[in-house]
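re: that complex we talked abt at group meeting.

here r the seqs, copy pasted straight from the sheet so there may be weird spacing, ignore it
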Amino acid sequence: MDLNFDPPASKTTAEQIAAQLRIAILNGKLLGGEQLRQDKLAKAFQVSRIPLREALSHLQAEGLIEIIPNRGAVVTHLSLQEVEEIYAMRQALEPLALERAIPHMTAEDFRDAEIILEQIDNEDNFARWGELNWAFHESIYRPSGMRILLKTVEGLHNNVVRYLQVTPLGNQGYLAKSQEQHRQLLDLCRRKEIHDACVLLENHLTGPVEFLRKQQTDL
Amino acid sequence: MDLNFDPPASKTTAEQIAAQLRIAILNGKLLGGEQLRQDKLAKAFQVSRIPLREALSHLQAEGLIEIIPNRGAVVTHLSLQEVEEIYAMRQALEPLALERAIPHMTAEDFRDAEIILEQIDNEDNFARWGELNWAFHESIYRPSGMRILLKTVEGLHNNVVRYLQVTPLGNQGYLAKSQEQHRQLLDLCRRKEIHDACVLLENHLTGPVEFLRKQQTDL
DNA sequence: ATTGACAAGATTGTATACAATTATAAAATA
DNA sequence: TATTTTATAATTGTATACAATCTTGTCAAT
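got the structure back, here u go
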């Protein structure tokens, strides 16, 4: 029997384009405020504007772009206040997922998480850091079985991750601290110390906000 | 100067159709599992399939329908477990909004909320209850200024509200209790008793889940 | 010099038409 | 009879073409 819930292999053109644009935005190749002209993008991807429009529609739903009727699409541009809002939401939601995930974690889950942490250590391409960082977080939330929550938090993560990648040199220290916390977190999960794990996680999620505040970037 | 941030008056056809379909789903006119054929809907709304497809795309993003490539759209159908998951998320997010809203509440905010509560008392059309219920909740969260959080929670509310409207007769008692809690909540907000207000709100959000569990409806 | 009106160009929104995929039901085989 | 095959119809995905809307630059009026 086929129990695969994931989207079918034959993805539609719109989804493929959405995926590529999403990566471009997340990696900062498309900057906030940048205009997205349907005609040019359609030619760039060598498709008509119809599937492209659907792709833009998806990205709007994820909050990555904004579509203004008759005036086109613009890459979203978050204020520091909005970034703080998203982190406040993540602090509320992610401990909830972790709390419910810990009782169901298996040896395989821990191994998967460890592998991702090693990949983060060895990765020198900063554009991939966000992807791997989310992969780790998701790996420790997934045993909760809360698919709706995970989808929501993934969207939140995607909306803020690009602001952490703007200064590859400056965040060397932040990165090391983040990895240290990841490992502590995993240890607490192994010991089933749910409360401490959640507190640490909440703390872990304050780091980026402080990091951004210090940079004084008016975003 | 125009400081209006809301979507412009001239809505696109796709948005109008999405709005109508959304109401139909929220009110239970389109039941879970129901197939949505593009051709028939396009004829019903007297438009081509292009704007209709965009409308469906929006609804999918909100979680109200699911689009399977080459196989069409189906109205989403939540399990009791998924409803519980959504309420767990709301319990995490809404007190956060309330906590930050209370310090900024003005006399006008309280008056608006009161008016909505009276409307709920006088409303005998159950289809509108969900709408008004959300209007109340939003009115007490809005002073927080957390637009992203509000948008997220509105989406969560929309996904579960139809399950509370299935048995108009049975929930007479639930409705009265809900209104009582709304008024207590508003009182606590007036007194700036933030902690108690948040606790009450969290409690208020457990009611529907218990109500649904008792009904034994396998949804 | 500044403001407002207006036309040309650019850009988005939608309808029609066609291609690709999937669902169905009848026919063929075991 | 049960199961596979195959052909037909139904449905979705996409390209092209056209209509509606917005932007931009020019020019007249105050």
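couple things i noticed - Chain B has ten helices and three strands. Confidence is low (pLDDT under 50) at residues 1-9 of chain B.
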